[in-house]
Amino acid sequence: MLNIEWPMLVIAALLLVSIAASRASFRLGVPALLLFVGIGMLAGSEGPGGIHFDDAGIAQAFGSVALMVILFSGGLDSDWTAFRPVIWRGLVLANVGVSLSAVLVGAFATLALGFAPLEGFLLGAIISSTDAAAVFSVMRTREVNLHDGLEALIELESGSNDPIAIFLTIGLTGILQSSDQSLWQLIPAFLLQMSIGASSGLFMGHIAGIVINRLRLNLEGLYPALALGIMLLTFSGTTILGGNGFLAVYILGIVIGNTDIVHKRSLLRFYDGIAWLMQIAMFLILGLLVFPSQLAPVAFDGVLVALFLMFIARPLSVIIALARSRFSLAAQLMVAWAGLRGAVPIILATFPLLAGVPSAGTIFNLVFFIVLASVLVQGTTITAVARWLGVNRPGGGEVRFPQEFVPQVGLASRLAELTVAPRAPAVGRALVELGLPRGALVVLITRGGDGVVPEGSTVFAAGDQVLFLIDAEALEVVRRAFAAEPTAPPA
Prior knowledge:
The chain is mainly α. It has helices at residues 5-28, 32-43, 56-76, 80-83, 87-113, 117-126, 132-141, 150-160, 162-177, 186-215, 222-240, 245-257, 264-289, 299-321, 329-337, 343-355, 360-389, 472-482, and strands at residues 414-419, 440-447, 450-452, 465-470.
């Protein structure tokens, strides 16, 4: 038998220490992701742990899977109604902003650090994108509650700008390996990848909503597994077709998360936990991969690039990308400061490392140093900067309801009871399939004298007495589905 007890013990210890560190991060004011990396470095070959790990291929493969799950989870928990007003600005920021940032950092690395132009541009491309894992975790745990659609814009950008950074990194790495390719060839390839990725994500998202609602599995625990299978199918199928799988799974998550599906709360809770597990494991592995002694020689250059990125390249690219938007200068500066770097740039730095690009080792260490500086400086000051710029809204964040299926109700809502007629459109259909309007909340279903707590998967039968909390406008729509006149609510 394989002796797996000791590896399991080490993994358990690292996981438990990381979870304890996440608790301590709130007290210390340091982002948890930074502590995860630190734990990995301490456990590594040059730390007290002495775990030797230098396989960039394994780190890249696991990082890609982890990023896929994190993007899907982030999309699943996103509110499309909040994204809709900023969708075009977010896409411009995610693509034009990232490209401008890559060019500016590339020019700085060429002129100030002596990199060859293509290698400087490669460094810029690797660190150009903001990291969804870092942004999601910091924004949702640091009491940042931005107004004027800023939070939606920042989260939309962080989730959708990874594909172009991945594309530029792989494309530039290929050009450095082969002189037959040129930068201009990347443009049509990029458009093809993005269009296939977006179309695949939208298509699979709509298919997933239909499948999840109509399959009616007997066990609630199977629904997260079903969603996992759909996510893997979307990513792999899109990649095989020549599209961008990361963009596809992010859009897939957004579509599923904004569709009325059964057991949605279960899915959200499950993937929120899995996303955190992926973040912990990814940052631990990346911490193990780096050798702290190799960071010292690039520390000065790393500080220069990090400062240039945070105070010049990122703000300039954001201001240009949002030049014709309604956002004020203070809001634009907040977007710039919230552009945290995280695990994605470190994962991208493994591509030239595995490809054997001459300066890949220096680029990897520089990227690692820049990411640490970004998370440490920007991650710890994001709340203070939001208050200083006057863009942080006082009070709590989004209110979370315990029910699985909660349409919007308000003060004008009242109780009304409808009886399901024998041939009503609702007979034989699940609650989630009815497409109830906003302002209609099913409170209780009485069937044969017994009360039934409504869920998204609850199927209506003739004779059911359905108690609603509903407003007048929605009542007219719901009445047609149940084909019954409302009566006074029970005493």
